[in-house]
Amino acid sequence: MPPEKRFLINAEALFKATLACSVSRDLHLAHERYCPQLPWLLPWQPNASANGRILEMVLRCLCFVKGDTCHLLQGVPSIWFDFGVPLGVDRLCVGGSLLTFSVAPVETGRARWRLSYSCQGAWIPRRFVIALPGRTPGDRAMREFLTGGKANGHGTLGE
Fold first, then answer.
1. Please, what is the average pLDDT of the chain?
2. What CA–CA distance (Å, rounded) separates 91 from 99?
3. In the chain, helix, strand, coil percent, each to 5?
4. CA nearest 116: which of 78, 154, 157?
5. Which of 97, 87, 155, 158 is nearest to 125 (CA)?
6. Which of 6, 32, 36, 156 has its CA 20 to 30 Å from the CA of residue 122?
7. In what order do the strands lie in the sheet with 140-146?
């Protein structure tokens, strides 16, 4: 197994464990040192910085910037693609611009996807690298989309 695939599997496991074990069951807020059976750990202590880190993890699963390249859906669990609905964000601040993007299936199946994007601001990525479902379940195919310096665009990705 290539190291990148091992890394993605481990990262997804850590992400799921964090969401399952380190948040309260009622409000899904991160907490620290809380156990109702141990009175010396009371009262309940919310952990605001951990809440921010969880949100940051979710956002980085969807989008992150490295150099002049914007990487999309690199850390998204494979099952998110199985529902056949668009994945994206609206007005996320990256590189000093507000980025809106959507990756939606063109037809049933996992072969073709439509990317649409809009950048409002001075920064426009030179290219997008999108991690789409591969030929076999759990695999990813990296697709590149060049922006040509345009602030808005769309195109079809895949086979």
1. 83
2. 5
3. 25, 40, 35
4. 154
5. 97
6. 156
7. 63-66, 69-72, 127-133, 140-146
Cβ burial 95-112 (10 Å sphere, 16+ → b, else e): eebbbebbbebeeeebee
For 26-44, what is each residue's pLDDT tens digit?
777 777 766 667 766 666 6
Residues 6+ positions from 98 with CB-CB distance below 8 Å:
91, 92, 119, 120, 121
pTM exceeds 0.85? no
- Bridge partners (DSSP) listed for residue 70: 65, 128
Do the bridges between strand 112-120 and strand 97-105 make them parallel or antiparallel, or are there none, so unpaired? antiparallel
pLDDT tens profile 77-87: 888 888 889 99
Residue with tokens 């990487």: 71
In eight-state DSSP terms, residue 44 is -
Query: So where are the chain's domains?
Result: 3-158
Cβ density class 135-156: b for 16+ within 10 Å, e for less = eeeeebbebebebeeeeebeee
Which amino acid is present at 49?
S
120, 97 contact by CB (below 8 A): yes
3-class secondary structure, 140: strand
